[in-house]
User: Fold these one by one.
Assistant:
Number 1:
Amino acid sequence: MSAPGSFGALLAYAKPHRKVLAASLGITLLASASGLIQPKFAQEILGRLALGTSVAGPILILAILLVAGALLTGLNAWLQQRTSERVVRQVRRDLVFRLIRLRVPELDQRPPGDLIARVTSDSTLLKSAATEGLIMSVNGVLTFIGAIVMMATLHLGLLAITFVVLLLVGVVMTIVLPRIKAAVARAQDSVGVIGAMLDRTLGATRTVKANGAEARETAAAQEAVEDAYQAGLVGARYSAIVSMVGGASIQTAFLVVLGVGGVFVANGSMAVSELIAFLLYVFFLASPIASLVTGTSMLQQGLGAVGRIGEVAGMPIEEDVEAPGVPLVAGPPPAIELRGVEFAYPGRAPALNGISFSIPGGTQTALVGLSGAGKTTLFSLLQRFYEPSAGTVLIGGVDISTLSRAEVRRRIAYVEQDAPAMAGTIRANLLYSAPEASADQIAEALRVTRLDGLITRLADGLDTPVGPRGVTLSGGERQRLAIARALLRRPQVLLLDEATAQLDARNEQALSEVVTGLAAHCTVVLIAHRLSTVIEADQIVVLEHGNVRAVGTHRSLVDDDELYRELAATQLLAAE
Ligand SMILES: Nc1ncnc2c1ncn2[C@@H]1O[C@H](COP(=O)(O)OP(=O)(O)OP(=O)(O)O)[C@@H](O)[C@H]1O
């Protein structure tokens, strides 16, 4: 695979469209060739006029060439732009596919706004580079060679003079073009930062407003806006230099050729018609040079974006999560076993230090411990969001590292710590875990989670939108919605991360009873900070600094474990 940002990587995007691009290049060359022979016809017409013979033939051919050239140019523009759109569509499809499947460790490190910018903004820059830029560059080179050959047939001395002047363009382009690429990459990085900043701010609007931090957030985003502007200016400056040198060199070449050619004509070593044809070629050169300049600038801009797009292609994804239409795994609730499980987040002290304990199938186990003890981390390992650095996790006696992630996750329903609802309606949120759920099943899940009252109060009932991240619901309603979603999944294993933390006493009690009842159908593991859920548990695992400190029932732990007793006596496990 080509390195991100390399020309090879850019070509890879164009490769699937090589036939259309080749056709388009062919048309471009044809149009250029027709332009290339026009000065020859002009020379012919001038010659015939001098001799007094008919010029009708050459004029007719010239007219046909002009019309055909215009038609071909139109067709070409359409072909190129359609291909550009297709390239962008493919890049966006690939990026979206990969971003949704990025591994959790990668996602935990990357600001979503920057990742989004790669799909929206970087891909747009690639648009013209992978098609128009490529064709213009190749066409520029080939037409340039064509013009040089034609000029060589007219006068070698004048060609040599023209060359010297044009050499300047080559030197300037070699120096300037890599700088355009760097400037574009910097500008795109800044666009990514703007996305990341806004994502951060808009994702926490209430915190921003409550802290009166609008000015600070605006200033931070404006800094990135300014960076993008400055980088854009640098790119614009270099592009201007290239165009200026391109244009000036043509004019210089024209004047020099006119002067020197004039001398040749005066001393009779060159015909006037030859000089005029040669001068027309010098002017004609402006077109391939402009093509080259614009085309290579576009390519450099594309390369700046290709680097950022290619980075995503290099990020590891979860390749084993595709399971379209595969039903949840049915069967008796499985036992869960952890054997010597060790884990550390990148660059952090170990979060789990060789944990071992068993959860019998069809029971309810509560994990308790001080904040940061490693409870949520354990859930992440159970679902293979992260992999342990040592030890084994077994579900139903099977080492989950031998199963695909899809298979592991199909057994499990998970209610996250902050129970996020997804933008959309209440119904969409419920069906997210179980698209096939019947109206009766939905009604039952709502009844159990005591959401039925809320639904009847809402004018649009189940079709009420919940807003971004479910902001139009209360914290407790959001939590109950997440639990209802998990129940509809009818999982073998139910993981509840402090799922009842935001519920009022009545709802909490009701849900605790539901959860206890569920243990008959699935293995329930819950992270608990409150006593009511813990008391009912068949087993309680007390974690401390990534170690299992004690395992037992509420009664036995109150008697035997000091930390548990302390937890039970304080707000963590509220009043007995
Ligand atoms: N994604 C992450 N990247 C790096 N470190 C993390 C990450 N998630 C958690 N940690 C760290 O790992 C340790 C264990 O965190 P974990 O979330 O498992 O604790 P917890 O017992 O669930 O705490 P709480 O009860 O407060 O939710 C903590 O020190 C935490 O700072």
Number 2:
Amino acid sequence: MDPKPSFPIGTRASTMALAQTRAAADRLNAAFPGLGAAPAPLSTRGDRDQVSRLERHGGKGGAFVEEIRAALRDGRIAAAMHSLKDMPGDEEAPGLVIGAVLPREAPGDALALRPGLALDDFLARRGEGFVIGAGSVRRTAYLRRLWPGARVVHYRGAADTRLRKLDEGVPQKLPDGGETPPADALVMARAGLDRIGASDRAAYDFPYSAMLPAIGQGVVALECRADAFAVREKLARIDDAPTRAAIEAEREVLWVLNGHCNAPIAGHARLEGETLHLKAAVLSEDGAALIEAEADGPAARPRALGRAVGLALIEKGARALIDASRPA
Ligand SMILES: NCc1[nH]cc(CCC(=O)O)c1CC(=O)O
């Protein structure tokens, strides 16, 4: 790797994050030959501390995003690569903007199975008696609805590490010193599996009707300083308009709900011609309650659509579910 790229893109050092950042650098270098965009891996506290839960770091933003933002603010990097899903949606970062999003990859969730397990058997038993690892309250809540007979355990860490633990039958350490039983299956982002070259590990893709993705899932975002005009101009040039419209609608839902990082909120927007279709949901942590809202709107006004869907969720009682899932 170029030790001192002229356009360093800050990133976490995981396999997945590096793959995403290389994709972003390729896109920039194709649009601006000679720019010298290249990944600048930074190690974050969230990566070093694999044991504690994300919430301990003040949420997703606290875990991964803030340290990379610090490098952006002090000028060590020109842009920062984030999985959009990991960026808090209910507040803006002062002085920073999302300058570009890359074309969205598969937005959904997939099931990876321990080698030797047959998908047919798993599905026929509806997960009964199986241990399923999941890393978010959204996935946990949907799993409890879908396969109530399965035991869902908290699983986190880099995607390739999680897969290795699944394959080797390694238990996962918990913050309280205990450990989970080895998992039979993991729920992971399909886009993450694709990016680390593990597409063949996706034994089953959850239909959106069974598990609606996280807001922003599958989208790579490039953040930069609001006052870095030369950078902003380059990022504007590679911004993917259909993805931008979708994420503006989705993230407006988060904004309206004021959803904290631990809230089981889901949402997905898709563009068809000039029309955006947006569906969003809020669940109770045990999956017993599911509130959904959906609407269509012009692609040119994505935030209005997101706002309407967010407010419809609140009308239907979403606020109580979000408050109930707030960490004490
Ligand atoms: N929270 C971790 C994270 N952040 C982004 C992705 C990959 C998919 C994406 O780009 O949304 C993942 C891994 C996962 O959820 O399994």
